[in-house]
What we know:
Elements: E1 14-15, E2 18-19, E3 21-22, H1 33-45, H2 56-75, E4 84-87, H3 90-105, E5 109-112, H4 122-126, E6 130-133, E7 153-159, H5 171-180, E8 185-188, H6 200-203, E9 207-211, E10 222-226, E11 243-246, E12 251-253, H7 267-283, H8 285-304, E13 309-311, E14 321-326, H9 331-340, E15 343-344, E16 346-348, H10 353-359, E17 364-368, H11 375-392
Parallel strand pairs: 3-15, 5-6, 5-7, 7-8, 8-9
Antiparallel strand pairs: 1-2, 4-10, 9-10, 11-12, 13-14, 14-17, 16-17
Helix pairs in contact: 1-7, 2-7, 8-11, 9-11
The site of pyridoxal-5'-phosphate (PLP) has 13 residues, from helix 3.
Amino acid sequence: MTGFAKDFPILEQKVYGKQLVYLDNAATTQKPNSVIDTISDFYRTDYSNIHRGVHYLSERSSERYEEARKKISDFIGARNPGEVTFTAGTTDSINQVARSLEPSLKGNEVLVTGVEHHSNIVPWQMAGAKPRAIEMDEDCNLLLDSIDITKKTKLIAISHVSNVLGSVNDIKKITEIAKDHDVPVLVDAAQSIQHLPLDVKDIGCDFLAASGHKMYASTGVGVLYTSDRFSDLMPAKGGGGMVDKVSLEKTTYQEPPLRYEAGTPHIAGAISMGAAIDYMQKIGLDKIEKHESDVYSYARDRLLEMDNVTVYGNTDRMCGSISFNMDQIHHYDAGLIMDKMGVAVRTGHHCAQPLMKSFAIEGTVRASFALYNTKEDVDRLIEGIEKVEMMYT
Length: 393
Ligand SMILES: Cc1ncc(COP(=O)(O)O)c(C=O)c1O
């Protein structure tokens, strides 16, 4: 193993006798030794429930949990750690916002894009709102000059980076437009937090959702940034830990972030997010962005050169994922053959059925990249595609 891949033990293995090339990072990323060790050491030395104990281990666990919150808060440029809530992941974060804003959303609309993951569509529908997509051109650039905010628009909820195309949306411009209409903005950062530097103050968003497992940390944990101008939202969940006083008649809540964290959280998961941030910062975010951008551009160029391959989307800025199809070959069959070549890609609609509908396709093959991928991995992907083509002609 060379480069950053040597930090990820799972990548050392061979599958079907071939060195594994893992290109399913938009689904989930692998974990570096430092994150694995942090989780295991935490359970060995400090583990206990947090915030409610007087004893030593509870103090240690609480400290480590709050340290992780501070790291994430600094990582995304929040004003203070109180703006960062631990959740179960991006889906949970978005659902919590939908529940809290439900009274204002019901019967109104949420402006989204045509590339959204189902997690940024279904929760709004369940809250009684109608998602409406901002128009895009045929390359999937958002047409922000024609953005149409009406009296019914109660929220703009937008992915930063598409999990299918890798298109990067200009979220800063969107928040500027939204401010003129006094409409809050939620950013789904599930596919950007691991690739691009984020600064919520600079972006000017009100909410930002992300998942730990897509940024080298555990599954079952994520974050919701809630700007302190929404510090008195109705919590989406009730239970222990989020209350100030409870009687059978009336309950009062803690200040944020605790008021949004009902029940025992994923303590080790939160700490793993802190460790993942330490890992990325040790490498350097600029270095990660530069390396990933080189590998990504190389992959796009190689795929675009292929006669039998259609690559979807071509926006001004792209990162992370690339989706394509091969002429006359079902994406699922292509993925199966590539798997036997040791190349792990994902196939299907990628939880973005509205986008698939706009391309009039059922699904794609998706190669998605992380900091440990290299140009050699791209060469293996291309060899895989060539093999698929050979088997079908
Ligand atoms: C853009 C986007 N939003 C939301 C999600 C949902 O994330 P999770 O399943 O971690 O909650 C995903 C997952 O792939 C995603 O890519």
